[in-house]
Amino acid sequence: SGYAPPPGYAPPGYAPPADYASYASSFILGMPRTLPFKEGEPAPQGYRLETQKSRRLLVAGSIVLGTAWALAALTAGSILSEGESEAGSYAPLFVPVGGPFITLATGEDVDFSDDGGRVAGSLVLLNGLTQVTGFALLVAGLASNPKVWVRHDIPRNTSLHAPELLVGPTGGTLRVRF
Questions:
Q1: Which residues does 11 contact at the CB level (< 8 Å), separation at least 6?
Q2: Which residue has the higher pLDDT, 160 or 53?
Q3: TM spans, by residue (predicted)?
């Protein structure tokens, strides 16, 4: 009494681990789900190599493009609903990515010749550049396939979702899942 147990023995009142399996599962739970892949480094123990889409780029591109396009479409809708004679020149804003640039080329009130046209033209140009940026991020996310180390206990993602195009008598829907 009063002395520590010899090396390799548990102190009185403490039992050694019941089995290796419970120890291994608690060890795995503490490991991160993925690790970055670095060329030339050996595989970390307990991991397998996979390629994945860059979700950050996909999400960022979708949000930037979708928000800018929705803003342009809402603007075009509100201008067209007023029914003025030159309101039709804003209809191209319904087209994603290219619509703002078509509106700059064909629009009557966005010609940069007077103060009102400069403000409207600048806003349409900014919206177009924002849509192009969002589209570029989205394409970069779809095109990139970075390699990552994934833990062995995480199942492989084998379900591939094809885009769905649904067309009905009064409209259509395009659904993409990833």
A1: 4, 5
A2: 53
A3: 57-80, 119-143
